[in-house]
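Marked as duplicate of an earlier ticket. Keeping the data here for the record.
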Amino acid sequence: MDTTVDLDSFSSLVERPDEAARKAAEEYRQQLGLPPGGLGSLEELGAWLASVQGAAPVRPVAAAKVLLFAGDHGVAGIGVSRPGSGTVDRVHAVLAGTAPTALLARRYGAAVRVVDMAVDAEPHEFPAEVSQYRVRRGSGRIDVEDALTAEETARAFRAGMAIADEEADAGTDLVLLGDIGTGSTTVAAVLVGALCGTDAAAVTGRGSGIDDRVWMVKCATVRDALRRARPVLGDQLGLLAATGGADFAAITGFLLQAAVRRLPVVLDGVVSAACALVAQRVAFRAPEWWRAGQDSGEPAQAKAYDRLTLTPLQQLGVRAGEGVGALLALPLLQAASDTLAEPTDVPAAAKGEPRPPAKLPTAAELLGLG
């Protein structure tokens, strides 16, 4: 199977959000008679939404979706996480509607989609629509071996691109991006440490709430994996294969193709931040299509956001993953769009009417498969 993906094309295909729409949205806000800065940070959020929508006044956020990529990581087997519910149970809880993500999504009117990329479970553990893009079971232990093969990395990356196309075509107007997986914060720390040129201690956080002893094990694991990451820093897919995972490769592909399709994304925790950092190396304009939902307190996330020049919308310290941090930012974005939209447009948002998708290159077209 062909293991190549043309990453160079993203640099030219990812355009900046519509600056004219941003300015027009700001002019519309001034016409509302509000004092300058009267709506605080909602004004900047509304202007950003107008720019990514290419519309002014801004359209209300009407079809937000929580998108969760799930995968397990080999490093979890050496004790870098606090014992707790496994990935399988967490995915089932989301699907059953009992997880915090599902409860909050219901409250805020967002749909939820889970994608199994590499959960350590039998292939038919989840419904077919959840596992249709599954690449493998778990991943390699990145401190001593590659997470994926080159072919698996390409498959996962392409899957993320295809999912971005599906969401854009379905009329999703805002993605709240999250992850589910054991060992994932260790992997994220390695990617951020490698891309930011920092040592293990500077990017290793407490993840699932680990104590000092487990933190030292995690720090040593990150240190050893960083040694394996540095020789492939110039090759983003090679980096994801060596020290990433199928979920990380899929999230990176998703972020890039979402930017091509002009689909705005709210990042959740350190995992989506790490993938965003990889994606930035591919297309430097891509971060303009993203917002950081909240600061989880993970040092690697803070370093990634600093490099991406993204400021978290909230300082909540939510480390649960599963898109909770991104989802908690949804009311802010809904408020920004509702208060700065045409008053006659706001009721349409309550009906969940999707926007018509723009005609932009699909993943198949980019990969020469169309």
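See parent ticket for discussion. The chain is about 50% helix and 10% strand.
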